[in-house]
Amino acid sequence: MKARKSEDLRKLNDADLTMNLKDAQETLANLRFKKTLGEVENSAYLKTLRKDIARINTIITERKRS
Length: 66
Fold this sequence. Notes:
Layout: H1 6-10, H2 14-37, H3 44-65
Helix pairs in contact: 2-3
């Protein structure tokens, strides 16, 4: 899965951003669990998810400050 671009994330409203954030966090938790069991096929996706979560958190913080 490809990383989401910040331009695409900025087009979303606050409710969609928080929904995407929760989904990404749940997916990351599940993948971490699978990684400990040795069932993850694409471990690079963990890094992509962490970066997506950081992008979403950054956009949410920017909106709160403005």
